[in-house]
Amino acid sequence: MAVQTVARPSAASQISELLDSPELHGLIAELEPWTGRKGYGARVLIGACLVKSLYAIPTWSRTAALIAEHDALRVALGGAPSIYACYRFATKLRQNRPALDACFDALVASLRAELPEYGRDLAIDASDLPAYANGQRFLSKNGPEREKFSDPDASWGHRSAVSTRKGGGFYGYKLHQAVCARTELPVAWQVETARVHESSLADDLLQRVRKRVKPQTATLDKGYDVQPVYDACERAECLPIISLRKTPAVKRGDHLPPTCEHGEWRFAGTDYARKLTKWRCPTGDCAPFSKWVKADRLHPLVPRESKRWGDLYRGRASVERAFGRLKNEYGLKPLRVRGLERVALHADLCILATLAAALARARAVPLAA
Residues in the chain with pLDDT < 50? Predict the structure, then answer.
């Protein structure tokens, strides 16, 4: 008996489906009056942006060349824009960010409707974007000092070791991102120069998230273990899930649960309204046999000793997978643009394709069922 299989949809049909979605159709309608010269409509140029990300192409020249020689793509887009039309369109996108932000808001709202768990638990981190430039201070070894840099917005920063890559300094930018830990889809993001520390942008990211969804928890690594990040989580009305740094208080054991002669006390519940955690004597022989502990950095509302905290913290790896997907599958890396605004737009277009494709998949599942 022959096995029937469903043919995988082509990239051209996928792009056509994305362009016909209500969210991207609204962006096209908003951009139509100022797309540029006659002959290159907003649909064609937004489609070129999707082609660039879905095919993981680093440059506009290669994107325009692919569309020109690909019959199915030309039909799906409704034309083949030139290289210069793509560059002009990117410039105008940078000048009119509200239209792009409104499209992101619509995509997030639609994803929230299709996937109720989207944005409930967050994972926040930053990843390196090496610049398309040379950041060395001197022109050559023992040579004169460099007077002009090809990318003046880039700066030196630090990145961790990954696999066979050594950690240390790099020259470029960082993408700071809040990702849904359940769906591994971006919720809010921001591109900054490499010297900006991750913890200083946690508040901005959480406020951007709060405008789109209402998260319950935010998971971050120990690099964010500073009091301003805990305060930012409280303002965003979400619970911080953060690993502790080895500060003097941690070395003294101030973060450990209460103890008595009967052993270590057990977690017995949380009062979220009063921001207190309850701990109980293991045998119940103490008087009183339970007490409330005020929540702070060392004693969060979700205790680090609890199973829930461990399950949530393991979800932090979702942000790393999201970074890898953007870099390897949607063309976020390597950078082939210079300047903070251009790098930020490049990241926006990669995430636009990611969210639009995820929304199309979410809508296709009920139809297939």
Answer: 1, 6-7, 368-369
